[in-house]
Amino acid sequence: MLARTGRAQVALLSLLLLGLLVSSCASSRPGAVHAPRGHRGSAGTGYVKDNKPAIWTSNQPRIAQFREHYRRTKTVETALEAGQRYLPAILPAFEKRRLPPELAYLPMLESMFENRADSGHARGLWQFTKQTAEHMGLRVGSMVDERLNWRKASEAAADYLDSLGERFNYDWALALADYNGGPGYIEDEMKRQRRGDFFSLQLRKETAEYVPRFIAMLQVAREKQLVALR
Questions:
Q1: Dist CA 207 CA 188 (whole Å)
Q2: Three-class SS of 118-135
Q3: I need a labelling partner for 38 at 20 to 30 A (CA). Which of 7, 47, 139, 211 fits?
Q4: Half-sphere exposure of 179 toward its Cβ, with a 13 Å CA cutoff?
C-alpha cells in the first residue's frame, strides 16, 4: 500500500514538472516586445493600477477610425522597431510601479521612440516640456538637458504618469488626456462641462485625438503581434 502511494506521488510530481517545463518553453512571435503580465484590479502580485481596463480593447468609433488609419501605414512598425532599444528597460520601470504596461509604449505616439525628437517646446522620448521636466526632477539648461537622458526621463515619465493616474482614479483615458493637455486642463474641462468620461468631453482637437490615436496604435500593434500585452 505504501509503495503504491509512493509511486503515485512520484508520478504526480513528474506530471507537475512536465507542465512547468512546457509552460516555460512557450513563446510568442519572435521580435515581439514582451510586457509584464498580471491581473487588473485584483490584489496580490499581479495587481495593476487600472480601474477601467476595457479602454485598451475598446471599439469606440474614434478609436476605430484611427485604427483603420494605422492598419494602412507602417507607423506602428517603424516606431516599435526604434523602441526595441529602449523598451527592455522602460517596461520594468512601469511594472515596479504597478502601472499598465500599455503606458510604456506611449513614446510611439509622442516621439516615434526617437530620443532626440524636438517639437520646439518639448523634447525626448516622452516629449517633456521644460516645466514638467523640472517639476519631475530633471535638469534642463544650456549645458545639460536630462530630457534626452532616456533612462532618467523614462523613470520620470513613469512617476509622472503614476501621479496623473492617482489624480484621475486610474482612469487612463483621462490621465493620458491630461498628459497631453497640460496641468489642470482636463480637470478644468470636467468641472466646466460637468462630465467625467473622456469621450463625452469636448476638448481641443489635439487632446481629443491623442487618446484614441494611442489606443488605436496599441491595438494595431497587438493585431500584428508586435507586442505581447495582456
A1: 14
A2: ECCCEECCCCEEHHHHHH
A3: 211
A4: 29
In this structure, which amino acid lies at residue 91? L
Kind plus residue range of the DSSP H or E element containing 33: strand 33-34
Rounded CA separation 229/216 (Å): 14
What number of residues does the chain have? Answer: 230
User: H-helix or E-strand containing 47?
Assistant: strand 47-48
Report field, pTM of the whole predicted structure over 0.85: no
Phi-psi region of 197 (alpha: psi -120 to 50; beta: other; left: phi over 0): beta
Which residues neighbour 29 within 8 Å (Cβ) at sequence distance 6 or greater?
225
C-alpha distances (whole Å) from 29 to each of 34, 79, 91, 95, 108 are 10, 18, 18, 22, 20
The per-residue pLDDT string of the chain (230 residues; one tens digit each, 9 = 90 and over) reads: 434 444 444 444 444 444 444 344 433 444 454 443 334 443 344 789 999 999 999 999 999 999 999 999 999 999 999 999 999 999 999 999 999 999 999 999 999 999 999 999 999 999 999 999 999 999 999 999 999 999 999 999 999 999 999 999 999 999 999 999 999 999 999 999 999 999 999 999 999 999 999 999 999 999 999 998 86
157 closest CA partner among 179, 187, 126: 126
Cell of 60: 469606440
- Contact between 223 and 79 under an 8 Å Cβ cutoff? The reply is no
> Cell 522620448 sits at which residue?
125
- Cα–Cα dist 212/70, whole Å: 12
